[in-house]
Amino acid sequence: MEKSRRGLDENIYGVFAEAGRDDRRQRPSSTSKTNKPVSFVRGQTLQPTNVSARKVDDDAAKVESDDEVDSRFVLDANAPNAQGLKPTMEGPKLPARNKLSFNQMANNYGKGFSMLQKMGFTGGGLGRHNDGIANPIEVQKRQGKMGLQDDGEMVGQDLYGNEGNEAGRRSLEELLFPTDQPKGKRESVSDGWKRDGKPKRQKTVYKTADEVVSEPTMRIVDMRGPEVKVASSFSELAASLAGDSVRSLKELRHNTRLLVSRYEEKIRASIERQRHCEDVLLSVAKEKERVEAAEKVSDAELATCKHLVTEIEALREQQDQGTLSLLDLADNFSRLQKARPKEFRILAAVDVAFALALPTARREFATWQPLKQPHDRLKAIARWQDMASAKTQEQFSALIEASLLPCLRKALVVWSPREPEPCIRLVERCRTLLQPVYADSLIAEVVLPRLRSEIEGWDPRLDTSSPHLWLHPWLPLLGKQMDILWAPIRFKISSCLDRWESSDMSAHAFLKPWQHVFDPSNWDPLIEKVLSKIEKSIGQTPVEPDGQNLESLRSLFAWMDLAPLDNISRVLESAFFPQWHGALRRWLRDSECDFSEVLQWYQGWKALFPKELREQGRIQKQFASGLEVMKHMMTHGVPDIPDSEGPASSKGDDNRSPASARLPVDEISLSLSEYISEVAAEEGLIFLPKKQRRNGKQVYQLGAATVQLDKNLIYVSPPANGDGEWKAASMDEVLALARATPRKKK
């Protein structure tokens, strides 16, 4: 019975039958007393605990020697550093991490996730200390007709979310000798469990010698970045460098900068050493030439050199006594150079000459007043310029820098820029006698800064003298160099124009000298500000047929020589002519209007404008419009003409009547029927021909009115319930009759 029972269990449970039978029967065993069941305790994350202050007296008894093992490293439940923990301990574990977000877990698990949250789940692992699993257990579904397998039953899942912390970190052996299979390739299911299954033989792969040679055998370990990488060739290593694989090279960049700075200092020192050596070689070459020239000197030439040295010594004694002027010293050395040129060159007497000239020049320039006597000392210094050659040009420049220029700068510091003539004579004399570079440096360093300082202190409201009196004399000498002075002047003039009245003509006299001096960027803003002031004044002056005030217009005409005519025409078109057209229409509307007086008034206004303005297209258009209004009144006898602003008025004025908007001459070419059709469209009125004729002419319906067009006249039919005849009417009367009833949209 026992045998059959055992066979049945084996058929059902297989290899697990023995364990099941042992569990049910619990047969005694000889080893049950010594072998205890194994309890697996999961490791946990160490939580900070408060260590009690009590001491454990038996620590020394459990540890044989403190010298051999430190108590901090004793992994025992009774150790001082393990108080409050379970007897079974493991090392600290990384905190558990969730693979899914809260939203994903709520969508996937619904009520279960909400129950977890009610139990206090806030993320991480399960349990009181958050040391349990952090990710839900995944279920692997077996394929059809597949039984239990030796491998592959457990899902390779990271329940604690710690695998990502070790991702990408592999040892050097793993990098050099990878054993992992590709990610997309899974192990094939073994067929050994089948009844007639036979293990498959491993396929043998044969390679040629060329294939073996072509296989990469070199391994390059790249340990420069935070991760260790292996390259099989230098080309692969270069490709990895070109990408973003190496993200941190701070140490390399720091070391590179140190090396660059170190070698940069070495290169700079080498260049300085090279220049020093070149200077030494040049001086040695010159000295060599002098020695060779001295060796070739004959006895007669040597005697002449002695006489030359005696004469130069005599000149030095005179220079020390102060009895020799700078001009006399230049004449004597020039005489010696012409008389004995070879000996003069052998002795390098020109160096001695400039050495003696410097103290002499300083002594003479100390009492010189260059603004009053610009010719005396400059003539002497010019003689030294003629004597200097190409080799001694540096010595002459040093003489100028040490003696002449300091004296000139000192004199120009106390010079008043409002008296330009003395300084202009001095600069011109320097430019004539000396090289232009010295005069240009004097202008840039002293003259222009002094003029700029004087302009900053100039106040146009208090100073009676205009700056053009002391600036324009410099124009022939400085030219474009003075452009830096115009902007400050323009700003000061512009601030004064803000409080200027258009009737004050002093501004015209003040701005006239600057018309051809200022560039357009400085001149145009000033003129625009002047015209805007005059335009405002004209706009505030009404146009009246009797007793007209012409002061603002005359002020505008006075600026015709400074302002462009097109800008003046624009001012008249925007400020004057709207009022002029309004006054003309009001006069024509008067029942006692005398057309001869209107014509005379029109001709008077036209004669008032200068000829240059009358020839402007804008002005001609405005006068032609007024004349067309007069002709229309005289020809058609329209008793009433509404106010209008003429051609210059804006198109968005809602107060303008449609009839008056069509009066200008540029619209008079339209036929009367076309004109009324456009007016009707603007007013939303019906304009259609009727089945009626009068005197052979077509009769039209315009809104609530019935009209007939005859050339340039409009006849209106009498009321339907009244007696009367067709009569001519103005456009305003026709529109009034057409609007008698509510408008009808077309």
UniProtKB/TrEMBL annotation:
<keyword id="KW-0539">Nucleus</keyword>
<feature type="region of interest" description="Disordered">
    <location>
        <begin position="180"/>
        <end position="203"/>
    </location>
</feature>
<feature type="compositionally biased region" description="Basic and acidic residues">
    <location>
        <begin position="182"/>
        <end position="196"/>
    </location>
</feature>
<comment type="similarity">
    <text>Belongs to the TFP11/STIP family.</text>
</comment>
<keyword id="KW-0507">mRNA processing</keyword>
<feature type="compositionally biased region" description="Polar residues">
    <location>
        <begin position="28"/>
        <end position="52"/>
    </location>
</feature>
<feature type="region of interest" description="Disordered">
    <location>
        <begin position="1"/>
        <end position="68"/>
    </location>
</feature>
<keyword id="KW-0508">mRNA splicing</keyword>
<keyword id="KW-0747">Spliceosome</keyword>
<dbReference type="Pfam" id="PF07842">
    <property type="entry name" value="GCFC"/>
</dbReference>
<dbReference type="GO" id="GO:0003676">
    <property type="term" value="F:nucleic acid binding"/>
</dbReference>
<dbReference type="Pfam" id="PF12457">
    <property type="entry name" value="TIP_N"/>
</dbReference>
<feature type="compositionally biased region" description="Basic and acidic residues">
    <location>
        <begin position="54"/>
        <end position="64"/>
    </location>
</feature>
<dbReference type="Pfam" id="PF01585">
    <property type="entry name" value="G-patch"/>
</dbReference>
<dbReference type="InterPro" id="IPR000467">
    <property type="entry name" value="G_patch_dom"/>
</dbReference>
<dbReference type="InterPro" id="IPR045211">
    <property type="entry name" value="TFP11/STIP/Ntr1"/>
</dbReference>
<dbReference type="InterPro" id="IPR022783">
    <property type="entry name" value="GCFC_dom"/>
</dbReference>
<feature type="region of interest" description="Disordered">
    <location>
        <begin position="636"/>
        <end position="660"/>
    </location>
</feature>
<dbReference type="GO" id="GO:0000390">
    <property type="term" value="P:spliceosomal complex disassembly"/>
</dbReference>
<dbReference type="GO" id="GO:0071008">
    <property type="term" value="C:U2-type post-mRNA release spliceosomal complex"/>
</dbReference>
<feature type="domain" description="G-patch">
    <location>
        <begin position="108"/>
        <end position="153"/>
    </location>
</feature>
<dbReference type="InterPro" id="IPR022159">
    <property type="entry name" value="STIP/TFIP11_N"/>
</dbReference>
<protein>
    <submittedName>
        <fullName>STIPL1 protein</fullName>
    </submittedName>
</protein>
